[in-house]
Specification:
Elements (H helix, E strand, L loop, with lengths): L7 E3 H5 L5 H9 L8 H4 L5 H11 L4 H12 L15 H10 L4 H11 L6 E3 L6 H10 L14 E5 L8 E5 H13 L1 H11 L4 H11 L3 H9 L1 H16 L13 H19 L17 E6 L5 H7 L7 E6 L6 H5 E7 L5 E7 L1 H11 L5 E6 L6 H5 L18 E2 L3 H10 L6 E2 L5 E7 L11 H4 L3 E5 L10 E7 L2 E6 H16 L24 H11 L16 H9 L7 H4 L20
Amino acid sequence: MSDSNQVHFSEESLDDVQGCEMEVVALFLAQGDEPQPPHKELGYSTQSEAFNAVAAKFRTNPHTVKLTRDSFDHHTESGRVGWKENLRPALAKVYEQFGKLSREELLAICQAVLGLENVEVSRSHGVQFEEVFERVVAANSETRTASPYQAQVVDFSNTGRRSDGWFSLTLDQIRDCLRDMIDNHEKFDSLNKSKNGYHETSWRNAFDSNLSNRVARTMGGVQTLPMFELLAKIIHFSNDSSPRTYKSIETDRHKLERALDVLSNHLSGLSNAPSQTASEGARVTGGDNILFYGAPGTGKSHSVWEMIDEDSDLYFTTVFHPDMQNSDFSGTLKPGINEHDQITYAFRPGPFARAVACAWANPDKKVFLVIEELNRAVAAAVFGELFQLLDREPDGSSSYNVDFPSPEFEKWFNNVAASDAERLGLPSNLWILATMNSADQGVYPLDTAFRRRWRQQYLAIDYNKAPEADVVFVTSADGKQSTKWSSFVETLNRFLVTELQVDEDRLIGPRFLNDQDLEDGHLPGKLLIYLWDDLLRHHQDKPLFHSSVRTYGDLDRRMSEDKPIFSGDFLSGLKSEKGEASAPDLDSDPS
């Protein structure tokens, strides 16, 4: 796109996107493929590349981006069926506000929020929070900073000469630091001028003596240089876009106040955003443990993310696996390297610890812990004593509290949650959402005592949720048949139940294959290998397949040679949309 073809829009238009950037990009990705697919208009060669890039930009996961795109599909001209349910409130608001824009306007906004080239935005006033952090992240060198995620958390690193060491502060805690530097301006300004920038012992003492927030004060004591660099970058780039010098900081009062204004204005915008939770000061209630289960492809993960409003809720995700231990889930003491290349030990929280501490620290927010594939680990062992916390009161809080798993956990928790708790409990604003499929090979059973502490939601097979796509397969030596994927999978499941007595939780859900899997109309290998290895492993005859198929190699070879792979009994139950397929010798070998 040349400069003469740039799309211009005001900063006010871009301001409307703040807080829903990922959703707006997902809305654009849900547009039709004319004049070219939307992901290619954004410069990505494939949809997967686009999902990964957008997820990295907005600190989420590619699956979330795809699910959001899928939610919009049914409301655009994408040609994909998407999810036919009504848009959840946050997405409905995005669609109402941006769904009527022209494709060119929506593209320009997406290019702007993704930081792509050839987009000119008219600025009507001073530097904004997003600009400051774009500069901060771009200035990464000895220490690094990541863009804020969940609208309020900043990750930053140490010098990383041997390995990455990453730490977190909330924007509120950083704002407290700037306020403290202004309130104690003479001390900080004098220190800066006398030491001509960074002097570790002096700045460590200054942080310890003058920072009011105990988390920030602790961070300044153990990671002094990374903390110094983070504050220095924010102050500098709130006032100037030019490069800054490593280990230097500006302590001019006006520049400190300007940095504080930028951060305060951003946080004020967050607090003024509409909320579906309780009023400030009141803790949200209703927290629960919910287990989604059903056959593969029934939409378990989608159902989880339908419960989460990514605009206003806070969430943490993990995937259980066979090697997962209690320390991975809750947290443990682990070694690291400080800025002096010395080995230090610090508590590294697991997803459970982070979610619980976040929920206690944010009483007016819904907080979610998402556990995918719950039964791929020995779940009761991974939870350990935390298992008892799953008993809930009517308001959603824990019926029983437990001892902290370790003194390090307790110290970390009380710092982060700003509490003085002696025992651990779940607050009423924490939801634990899990998915599982008991049919998969290599999974562990859930014992009754553990499972009954979850509200269990079974997802039945619903063929109306199948992608709108056709599948093509060979029926005879010179004949092929085409049918809707929804019809194919329904017939397949009926055959598996009636002829092979396959259990319901091992059948094929309509979302087992997605739009990308069905793009070329051929049945992908992941379906065939599931049928062969998982469902028919103990059926020597393999009556679903052609009589000449004796090994999976035979099956793969016949697929590549365009020969029939399914048995006549199965194919007789399928009807082509163009009429009955005529194949009197379905089980004969055309070769």
